Amino acid sequence: MISKTKDMLLKEKYYTHLLVFIAFTLFVSCDLDEEVYTEVLSSEFGQTEEEVTALVGAAYSSYGGWIGGPWVTSLVSSDEGVVPTRGTDWAENGQWARMHEHDFQPDDFYANFSWGPLYTGINNVNRIIYQLEQTGTDAALQTVKELKVLRAFNYYHLMDIYGNVPLVISFVDAEENPANNTRAEIFSFITTEVESVIDDLPTDVTSTYGKINKWVAHALLAKVYLNAEVYVGSPEWEKVIEHTDAIIESGNYNLASSYFDNFSIDNESSSENIFVFVYDRVFSGGMSIAVRTLHYESQKTYNFTQQPWNGYSSLEDFYNKFDDDDVRKQSFVVGPQFDSSGNPLEDASAEPTDPNGPPIEFTPEITGLRTALRQEGTRIGKFEFESGGDPAAMNNDFPVFRYGDILLTKAEAEFRLGNEADALVLVNMIRERAGVPTFASLTLDVLLDERGRETAFEGYRRQDQIRFGTFNDAWEFKPADPSDHVNLFPISRSQLEANPNLQQNPGY
User: Fold this and answer.
1) Dist. CA 8–CA 69, nearest whole Å
2) Is there a contact between 300 and 340 (Cβ–Cβ < 8 Å)?
3) Among the listed residues 238, 200, 194, the one whose alpha carbon sits nearest the alpha carbon of residue 217
4) Residue in 339, 333, 327 with CA at minimum distance from that of residue 313
5) CA-to-CA separations, 260 to 172, 383, 395, in angstroms, rounded
6) In angstroms, rounded to a whole number, what is the distance separating the alpha carbons of residues 59 and 54?
7) Using CA atoms, how far apart are residues 443 and 449, in angstroms rounded to an integer?
8) Is the dihedral of CA 388, 68, 384, 395 positive or negative?
9) pLDDT for 280-305, tens place per residue?
10) Per-residue pLDDT tens for 380-399?
């Protein structure tokens, strides 16, 4: 049933593009004056379910830049991953290295990684909400409630990464150059907005695959309240438990028997994934982890349609947090590499004088952030690679909110409230599924490490480290931070120049 739902969603994406094209063709081919054009767009289009789908499609298709935006922002700024410079590859004038070292610069490209795609999503949602409200049908107004949660999701990440950001919720009355709102104001907007509609959201999990439903809203609130002390200075552990309990007690989700069912090519059948970005090589591209992480010669291993870029890697210390018998250690690609016929891969281009270059073996050790060898660094293999597929447009859906994370989120809240026994039960459920011994007791350090193992490469490591107070510590290739201002990214200089009312974050 869930698999069929994904097929239906991909068809909706196709019909979205088709209907928008038809509507555009009608508008430009008819002799319509401005008044009729506006009237057709706002009050007539969106009357049918197909037309509503066409409008809403743009809101959900704006996450093609997720891997190159919020996801990599978390990966490279944390102790989880790095993009080492290998010769001249990935040098980028030191920008990738500075990102890992927390030497954040407003002129560097990563300052805009998340701002651009997240505000693109917000602008799409604001436009679609305006159009649906003009339509006024029951179906349209119900969809508005779902889109408000999606907009709040974008603001959650903007607030998390940049702190004080402009709050823009109007399409027709928006200020041309809005000023920053405070982080506390954004926090209040998110929680108030989602709580105002949560009880009116759909509860069925099959017909809403890849879309907002009640349980997605609970997951969003649980994550926002989990970080409340960081965002507004006051913890909200009881509210974390309230919203995680709503998901757990719904009975809609459970731990997948196999951890990697959540990340397989056909992971729409997972019993664990609460909210996903639906990716597909034809209808919805953007799932590009394989092309970013694997070696150039790895094309021969998986018979990919194009050559990977030999970039994103994990760090030795993070890799060593996993016991050898932990099934989650298979999230890394490590050791000697072979082609699809089992022959050892050789990196001929690494040694121009040797046509049979050194055998390719991915090593946990990286000898230098700016001087890494081409084979160094374990690669990110958590998401199944498709033989014969396009590594830049994988078919795996990306799990944004997942039941295993929800269990650990509740466990952390319980532990911080002094309920260690309750927290221990939840953490050990995760440990048992991973095939490793259960814990007899917990500490905050143990919880953070377990979160790292369970949610590796899912885009939350930076956030977790800030909440646990380790983000400013020294780790591989990064000294201790002289100031915690780096807990927020700088606003890109290009954004500041485009909008003179924006204020840069302190320290930049």
Assistant:
1) 27
2) yes
3) 194
4) 333
5) 45, 8, 15
6) 10
7) 10
8) negative
9) 999 899 999 999 999 999 999 999 99
10) 999 999 999 999 999 999 99
